[in-house]
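Subject: sequence -> structure tokens, single chain

Hey, anyone have a minute? Need the predicted structure for the following. Not urgent.
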Amino acid sequence: MKHDLLIFDLDGTISDPREGIVRSFNFALSHHRLPELAETEIAAHIGPPLDQTFIALTQNQDPAFIASLVKKYRERYAEVGYSENTLYAGIKDTLAELHSRQVRMGICTSKPVDFARQILGLFGLEAMFEFVSGGDIGIEKWQQLETLKKQFTISQHAIMIGDRAVDLTAAHKNGLQAAGVLWGYGSYEELDNEQPAYLFEQPSQLLRLIPD
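Reply:
Had a minute. Here:
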């Protein structure tokens, strides 16, 4: 086997969260009497942790204000936003094929673990993954991978799969290989600049990570 475990990002890699994220962002902004933003502006920031995105969108770095925005966002996301996800075409079949071949898989997402599990459960995917690592405010993805290594949940032979530069840099900071996927929110240039071991254009190509 080329890799002993495949680690998947969630948003932009397995599911498309655009509708739920955009509506929840604007719900939080509106609650704080800030103007709602265009879908394209918010979508460009899908991937990194929520606090970083709110700082970028509001140009406000006050910790209490950002925490309040995140709290309001999560109120709507917990109620309905998570259910507004859709799976990328072909990803469920590919994951099922990997699972049928007894390929070990896990999730590492910036989302809180409860939200991640809700989304995986929504699509009947959770049983395919050995673990779900969720993030929180102040926790970077590279730190999540570092913790997984320290706990011996993953080894140096695991590979991180994601659609944004943050996924690839997190892997490289931990000495892991990374694969970029081009059906999510990161551009070819963004991902190629991080020198991933692989760049995939469609989910079925993920099968190249395992032997025939």
